[in-house]
Amino acid sequence: MIRLCEAHEVTTIHAIINDAAVVYKGVIPDDRYHEPYMSLSELEQEMNDGVQFWGYTDDSGELFGVMGLQDKGAVSLIRHAYVRSVARNGGIGGKLLHHLLTCTDKPILIGTWSDASWAIGFYEKHGFRVVSPQEKERLLRLYWNVPERQIEESVVLANQMQVI
Questions:
Q1: Residue 160: pLDDT band by 50, 70, 90 thresholds?
Q2: Is residue 163 included in any domain, yes or no?
Q3: Which of 44, 50, 106, 43 is CA-nearest to residue 80?
Q4: Which residues face 83 on adjacent strands?
Q5: Is residue 161 predicted with pLDDT exceeding 80?
Q6: pTM of this structure
Q7: In the chain, which residue ranges form alpha helices assigned H by DSSP?
Q8: Which one-letter DSSP state was computed for residue 127?
Q9: Is the sign of the CA dihedral 33, 34, 36, 41 positive or negative?
Q10: Helix (H, G, I), strand (E, B), or coil: what is residue 112?
Q11: What is the band of 151 on the pLDDT scale with cuts at 50, 70, 90?
């Protein structure tokens, strides 16, 4: 079942993100990877900045995957899409993504690490396309608040290529 996560689930969301993010270790540049990958205070700030997390639960109600959606005016951003390592490759990410696509009629942008080929492939399989390097830089500066180094090491994918 897919449902909107509640504020009291922040520690569970945090655990899922950090469990799943270990796949970045040794893949993304060493200066961009740290443990935990995301601190609890960073996650709380993301939620305060309007990232709404949706979660995939099993019949017992346990969260196995999360994906955030953030309204940025002209576009919506998919943020922090992670599935517990024990449940990876079972279709949870695709179910979450399809649900979030129904939550907005705006163009959707996704930022991820350029070396995370599995993530890029996942989004491409679901109809997203990598934007040009010039457009990537413009979009990251306009809609995200990330360090310059992260801009250098990222790609942006869009489901509609006519993005504002």
A1: confident
A2: no
A3: 43
A4: 65
A5: no
A6: 0.95
A7: 10-20, 40-48, 92-101, 117-125, 133-143, 148-152
A8: T
A9: negative
A10: strand
A11: very high
